[in-house]
Specification:
The protein is of the alpha+beta class. Helix content is 30%, strand content 33%. It has a 15-stranded mixed beta sheet that branches. A hairpin with a 5-residue loop joins strand 5 (125-136) and strand 6 (142-147). Helix 2 packs across helix 3 (68-79) and helix 7 crosses helix 8 (173-187). It is globular and about 55 Å long. The model is unreliable at 165-184 (pLDDT under 50).
Length: 309
């Protein structure tokens, strides 16, 4: 295996300092006698630039030490390359972010560095699906964004956006989430959405919608990123008591038990949402699309390092 290019995205919101965290990771990498070069991402928006640099220098294994948002940036960079280049590139992860949902799907966790590094050493690869959202922004520019995990629309997207703001003021990730959720719930915004799934067009007022290729932060728990399909869960307009009950089920990983949940499975979905509706892609806030937009799956596009045997 050629040298590994590692992009380290420090997480300043944990008890372990970034320096001590990297010392543990590097010691584990050295114990497995892996040859690697490391670059540290200083800003949240620098991952794509660093991945481009590694690809330009011939690295074919790129490991992100970070969370879902950093993985999302890496995937978007890789997907912009030509197919013959993309097929040679392998992406891996050592969980280190605020949200590590895609890593956890494959059995990796923040606290088990050895398992992630051992899997990189074994280099067991699986081709995984990539979700794709095509939309037009408010400047009438055609845009494309890729994702590994999910697209959130409505309540949960608003919570994710608010959480990024409250996390700057509140040290605790859980406290930031609870505060953001409380704010969004008591604002009680309802979002109008028109969608076409499996050739059926409907219009509803919803609280939230998740379109997931993987776990979807617990909202699409049956989704898998290798069947060429999207799992879609939608929560229709609910009274306050049911919203609070839904958040309780969500926290317990049983969101599909909520009586207002409408589940679907499809290769694609076309949507039209009202201006100002919050949207996030793998946790990244995204501008509200102008006009109809399409989300679909591109099957087996990324080589991903999965759990060792």
């Amino acid at each position: 295996m050629k040298n590994i290019g590692i992009i380290y995205c420090p997480n300043h919101k944990t008890f372990c300092s970034p320096e001590k965290r990297w010392a543990k990771i590097s010691a584990t990498l050295d114990a497995y006698k892996l040859e690697y070069d490391i670059i540290q991402s200083e800003k949240v928006d620098s991952v794509e630039r660093l991945v481009t640099m590694l690809l330009g220098n011939g690295y074919e294994t790129i490991v992100i030490v970070g969370g879902d948002s950093a993985l999302n940036d890496a995937v978007n960079c890789i997907m912009r390359t030509e197919k013959h280049i993309r097929e040679k590139v392998t992406l891996g992860v050592i969980p280190n972010g605020v949200m590590n949902d895609f890593a956890s799907f494959w059995g990796f966790s923040y606290n088990d560095i050895d398992k992630a590094v051992a899997s990189i050493a074994q280099h067991r690869i699986r081709k995984v699906d990539v979700g794709c959202i095509r939309y037009t922004n408010n400047k009438a520019e055609a845009k494309t964004r890729y994702f590994l995990n999910c697209v959130n629309i409505g309540l949960l997207a608003g919570i994710q956006k608010l959480r990024q703001q409250t996390r700057r003021r509140l040290w605790s990730r859980k406290l930031a989430f609870v505060t953001s959720a409380a704010l969004m719930v008591f604002i009680k915004k309802i979002f109008k959405i028109t969608y076409t799934i499996n050739f059926i067009k409907e219009e509803h007022r919803i609280s939230t919608m998740c379109i997931g290729s993987a776990y979807g932060y617990g909202q699409t728990p049956n989704a898998v990123p290798y069947n060429g399909l999207l799992d879609i869960t939608m929560v229709r307009h609910s009274p306050m008591s049911e919203i609070l009950g839904g958040l309780y089920l969500f926290a317990r990983g049983k969101i599909l038990n909520h009586k207002r949940i409408v589940p679907y499975r499809s290769h694609d979905i076309e949507l039209h949402i009202t201006k100002g509706t919050p949207v996030t892609v793998d946790g990244h806030p995204m501008e509200t699309p102008c006009g109809p937009f399409i989300i679909n799956v591109q099957q087996e596009e990324i080589n991903f390092i999965i759990e060792k045997r």
